[in-house]
Write a structure and sequence with these properties.
Aspartate Aminotransferase, domain 2, about 450 residues, alpha/beta, 2 domains, about 15% strand, Aspartate Aminotransferase, domain 1, 12 strands, 5-stranded mixed β-sheet
Length: about 450
């Protein structure tokens, strides 16, 4: 059954709302013996019925042979996320880093070039600088990420991908997707958006011109901090006539002379190549158990994200009034430089991950963190529990002082990921941290 058939079957004659889709898409329970919960197909492989059926499966790929190739539990998540992001098809992998890596490796080869916003997750930045560079791929970073001309100036004949985050980590400096998508499409290059911090509940980048969306499903999609996972979603609109010469791996015949991915899959050539070549050969296979838990988490995504965004706004407004706080980087605040852009792209909430900077530098940050009782001190995001981290000494400790200051990360900068606790309790906990800063204890 194709995804378009699934969409028609699940939506019937009218468009269903987000909360309904997050609960009912991808499961397709039948009558009689079908379980209501998505089953966990915890198996390495699947029994082949007979000799001819096995040959047909390996020839056409329509069915299940081995979990590294396809698994029904993972497929349920893929269908659900594709629907929520309004994409054509999704691919579930083992982590958010795997989603970025598989996407980039599928588009790039030695001698080519990536152009990225400078305000991105440090693990992705390290992948570009340390790993892709060893494969002969160069990366440039755009500091003024919402200036189309800044991107235009840095595009080369060898550029094959533009990359950014919808809500960048940790500065909450909202990215203008539509403006930069125009630049990308003028050159036949895909725009890839990491939508982890926004989630498809708050923002669907494909609707604004992005071509590919990636997620760390470990974060908000799962929501419970128990598993790792990543998702790649493609818009299914690869244009071979316009972009085929840039991506011969999609347009040239297969190694043994079979049809090209474009001949076989049309507009879905990109995601088919990522699934059938990159994910299959590199093997970032998600556990079916992880897929099940991610699927369970998605069922409450809208409720969690709405509550987290409301709590984040409350914390940000409170912090902004405190004399010990130098600045609060939350786009929901009217004082924030990205507020107008946030209202345009994120009218239902501005997310729940943001940074604030204490006066007093590292010593103040240390006293603040050590005084907290509700916030968990750990390197994670998107949990139902509120989290805190000091980027300068943890996630961003491989940056020089100049690189940190250029990224707006100061000695007193702390990153918050706001959960679903009672707002009054979170405010009291933050106040407890500020009291420690004031007392110097």
């Amino acid at each position: 059954m194709t995804l378009s058939q699934i969409v028609h079957q699940e939506q019937g004659d009218e468009e269903r709302g987000f909360a309904t889709l997050q609960l009912h898409s991808g499961n397709r329970p039948g009558s009689g013996v079908a379980p209501r919960a998505t089953p966990i197909y915890l198996t390495a492989g699947f029994v082949l019925e007979d000799f001819d059926q096995a040959a047909d499966l390996f020839e056409n790929g329509d069915g299940y042979t081995y979990t590294r190739v396809a698994n029904p539990t993972a497929e349920a998540v893929e269908q659900k996320v594709a629907l929520l992001e309004r994409g054509a098809e999704a691919l579930l992998v083992s982590s958010g880093q795997a989603a970025v890596a598989i996407t980039m490796l599928g588009l790039l080869e030695a001698g080519q070039h990536v152009l990225s916003s400078s305000s991105i997750y440090e693990g992705t930045r390290g992948f570009f600088l340390d790993n892709l560079s060893r494969m002969g791929v160069e990366t440039d970073f755009v500091d003024d990420a919402n200036d189309p001309q800044a991107w235009e100036r840095l595009i080369r004949p060898t550029t094959r991908a533009l990359f950014a985050e919808s809500i960048p980590n940790p500065k909450n400096d909202i990215f203008d997707i539509a403006a930069i998508a125009e630049v990308a499409h003028a050159h036949g290059i895909p725009l890839i958006i990491d939508n982890t911090l926004a989630t498809p509940y708050l923002l669907r980048p494909l609707e604004h011109g992005a071509d590919i969306v990636v997620h760390s499903a470990s974060k908000f999609l799962a929501g419970h901090g128990a598993v790792l996972g990543g998702v790649i979603v493609d818009n299914g609109k690869f244009d071979a006539e316009r972009s085929g010469s840039l991506f011969p791996q999609l347009t040239q015949p297969a190694r043994l002379g079979g049809p090209s991915f474009v001949d076989r899959e049309g507009g879905r050539a990109r995601i088919a190549y990522l699934r059938d070549v990159l994910a299959l050969r590199f093997g970032p296979t998600p556990s079916p158990l992880n897929a099940f838990l991610i699927n369970q988490g998605i069922e409450t995504l809208s409720l969690r994200v709405q509550r987290q965004s409301e709590n984040a706004m409350g914390i940000a407004r409170w912090l902004e009034q405190q004399p010990e706080v130098h600045s609060v980087d939350y786009s929901g605040l009217e004082s924030n430089a990205f507020h107008k852009l946030a209202l345009r792209y994120l009218p239902d909430g501005q997310g729940s991950v943001f940074a604030f900077t204490l006066r007093g530098g590292v010593d103040a940050a240390r006293r603040f963190v050590n005084a907290l009782q509700i916030f968990t001190h750990m390197t994670h995001l998107g949990d139902v529990k509120s989290l805190i981290l000091h980027p300068g000494t943890t996630s961003h400790n491989q940056r020089t002082d100049d690189e940190l200051s250029q990224g707006g990360i100061w000695p007193g900068t702390l990153r918050l990921s706001i959960g679903i606790e009672d707002l009054s309790d979170l405010v009291r906990d933050v106040d407890r941290g500020l009291a420690a800063v004031r007392s110097g204890s």
